[in-house]
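Worked example (supplementary).
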Amino acid sequence: MSMPPNSADAGTGSGTGSATGPDVIVIGGGLHGCSAAFHIASAGRKVLLLERDVIARHASSASAGGVRRLFRHPAEIPLTMASLELWHAMKDMLGDTGDFRPTGQLRVAETEEEMARLEARVKLTRSMGYDHEVLVDRKRMFEIAPALGPQCLGAIHVERDGYAFPYKSTLAFRNAAAKLGADIREGVGVRGIVRDGGRWKVDTNAGEFAAPVLVNAAGAWGARIAEMVGERVPLKALALMMMVSARMPHFLDPTVGTLGRQMSFKQMQSGAVVVGGGHRGTPDLDTGITQLDFRKLKTSADTIGGVFPIMRKAEIVRAWAGIEGCTPDDIPYIGPSRTHDGLYHSFGFCGHGFQLGPIVGSITAELITKGRTNLPIEPFRIDRFGPDPDAVSWEASRAA
Amino acid sequence: MTSAPDLAIVGAGPAGLAAAIEGARLGLAVALYDEQPEPGGQIFRAAESVAAGKGAPLAAFGADYAEGPQLVARFRASPAAAGYMPRTTIWLLDRQRTLGHVQDGKARMLRPKRVLIATGAQERPVPLPGWTTPGVMTVGAAQGLMKSAGQVPEPPFALCGSGPLLYQFAAQLVAAGERRFTVLDTTPKGRWARALPFLPGALRDTDLLLKGLGLMQKVRMAGVPVLRHVRDVAVHGNGRVEHVTFRHGNHLGELPVQLLLLHQGVVPNVSLSLSVPLRHVWDAAQRCFRPALDAWGNSDVAGIAVAGDGGGIGGWQAATAQGELAALEAAHALGRIERAERDRQAAPIRARLKTALAARGLIDTLYAPPPLAALADATIVCRCEEVTAGQVRAAIAMGDTNPNAVKSRTRAGMGPCQGRMCGLTVSELVAHARGLPPDAAGTYRLRPPIKPLPVAVLADLDTSAVEEEEDAT
Ligand SMILES: Cc1cc2nc3c(=O)[nH]c(=O)nc-3n(C[C@H](O)[C@H](O)[C@H](O)COP(=O)(O)OP(=O)(O)OC[C@H]3O[C@@H](n4cnc5c(N)ncnc54)[C@H](O)[C@@H]3O)c2cc1C
Ligand SMILES: Cc1cc2nc3c(=O)[nH]c(=O)nc-3n(C[C@H](O)[C@H](O)[C@H](O)COP(=O)(O)OP(=O)(O)OC[C@H]3O[C@@H](n4cnc5c(N)ncnc54)[C@H](O)[C@@H]3O)c2cc1C
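After joint prediction of all chains, the assembly is encoded as:
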């Protein structure tokens, strides 16, 4: 995939800014904000990115960095397939790989019942016309990941997937955007937004900024930004926890998840093992501080010792949590506002938006500059839960 | 201890011991944790063993050290001794006061009513060319070995750096009969002139000042070569230190050694307080971060206080006073004593604290560390991950605007020590490159466990005390 043509579309789509002001203001300097800033700047628009803290302070540096198409929600599959191609083209696109390492992804079954679920899953994706998920038997699984415990029965393997260093990937987009002239500001928090004629006036701790187009990429705070313009949506902030071990001798290449237990697991090139799996601490959206819950990390420690016996001897040197926004149906909000012109949302990635970063920024840029995208984003509509977020049943949405 | 203690104290140095004794006197159920096998902290390390004739002779450590066994004996006689847990490492403390400890391979969590952080000081890292070569260690570490194991370094060796501990240890070596070493004092010329305005303050505690000068005299009189105003120190050796080079006046010096002991003063050990996280401020005089505290040692998090060097370097006498004040405040907060009673009992302690701190301005000015901006690119900053000053600067040039960003990119601070050895350096390098004060540049975010925890130990973590507490509320 080649780089989007520079400034070819400037002047089409939504209105452009004044001679001096930006065309587009992006709120949020995580992976999604930086990717949007890059793609919009690539299309020749003048971008101002406002980040309240520092670039990649939240989910985008806390992330496990799994570049995973495996086991995606059906609505996300077209996007995840396109995004992977961008990950492989990162060097050409940004001049920086973002430290992407395509060492594969594996999802392991530990019981017969789980094995049956893996089989059903592969049948489903095949029926949709995708063949990236491959069922492997026990023998093949141990060839791919010999350190797995003897109870493991088989797996889905996805080649060309892998992992990247979340901070470096985000900075790669940030730096590429800055090279194209995007103005990136740290320590500038958005406090209020008003529509004034054809322009958004954005009030911040560092004064007022204005532009005709606004992108909301504020992660777990995205619903707060949307609410500033009266667009109320359901979003929960979760503090997803991770742990990392001291360096270990090399024993594993792919990123491994288990179907039955909460675990995502990878060994980095340094030898350190990074463990996640969606165990939750407590977030505080006002301060950005997270608190870990070691009762759940205890469970996590028990799990990794069971799945990878070699880990029983490992030492945990650090744990952390990142704040992520989650929606009732576990897929993000992507696309135009349904109440205002010139506003585009891209937030609430539910713990799996890292892999989607490259493509969603490109979709947002297309929407702004061309007014359309070829990828199916209807399932991610901002208004899919209706006007009253408090009336939404999270259980029912998830089950659907 | 089964039920949650009223006051849990982390660190059994002068601050923690004084707080424990005072807390128990005021009727509090006290728990005191320390990873060391004996109470006493840094200065009074192994005080009981030394007093009992194990380790090096007591006399070697000077008059101050002799106070150690007395403080420890008072603690042993106090009801607080029942709550003492040696060889116990605190690896977790959060804003709900959830405290995690591990002793003999068994980890537990509990939630005390109040927590006092009394984790003391650590030596300021001295990044200079070759400082990670085997055979280089800190003066404090060597002193610890002498206290706990009676171990005196093998000549030829040298002490190098600046700060009160340098001459104190040199004097202790002389007292122990060892003179075959060299002191390379890196305190720059002209420091005394700059420190002099602080003299009136220091004179209120002439005792301490004279003690300092006396130590230097004692070392010189014993015939130990002392080179002053030494600059540009570098360590050389193939897999092991062989010699050090330096500038002394107009000369290039070279000294064969098999051991080099570095020292550049001490800074608060903020691993635990940063991990909570408590709010920290930059102390420009001491060139370090310390938790923001009120006059009772209270932090910005309810029920968590800090006493002793962990809250800012003040020495052991200040530490005991701060420990007692924190205990009074705990007793008041838990309804054991009235406000007026707390203040009345605090008055004489505050007077002691003032005297103890009188010489700080002088010491801080005299021994201010050299600016890190001049650090050579090739010098290692993070020992665990072997990251150089040049790599840190390159990361800043690539857009990393804060220490956590530098950490993410370079892995500096990601090793098992979690940045204890490089945190200050990286904060200062970022601050310098961006023309900001270090507090604007910020610190590493530290995360529990602040000390490595084996997976098997974590999997077997006992959380029952916290579950019970939550069920009850
Ligand atoms: C622990 C963890 C593990 C994960 N593992 C994976 C994985 O393996 N694979 C995967 O695909 N995904 C994973 N994810 C999810 C993925 O990391 C996130 O979906 C993605 O990083 C979200 O990026 P973002 O830009 O939307 O959010 P963020 O990175 O959180 O960025 C939002 C930014 O907006 C800023 N902001 C908020 N309010 C304002 C305001 N008012 N003004 C200005 N700025 C503001 C915030 O400061 C923040 O920097 C994981 C997430 C976590 C937390
Ligand atoms: C290496 C070194 C040597 C020193 N030697 C001298 C000296 O000889 N003379 C002198 O006047 N001053 C000396 N000082 C300064 C001296 O430490 C202080 O002035 C004084 O000891 C401060 O007392 P404190 O109670 O605040 O802390 P400390 O005496 O340092 O006590 C802190 C205690 O906390 C414990 N601790 C820390 N973290 C944890 C944790 N996570 N879990 C469990 N326990 C923990 C430590 O084991 C230690 O025992 C030295 C400092 C250092 C760093």
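Two points are worth noting when inspecting this output. The longest strand of chain A covers residues 315-326. Residues 47 and 237 of chain A are 28 Å apart (CA to CA).
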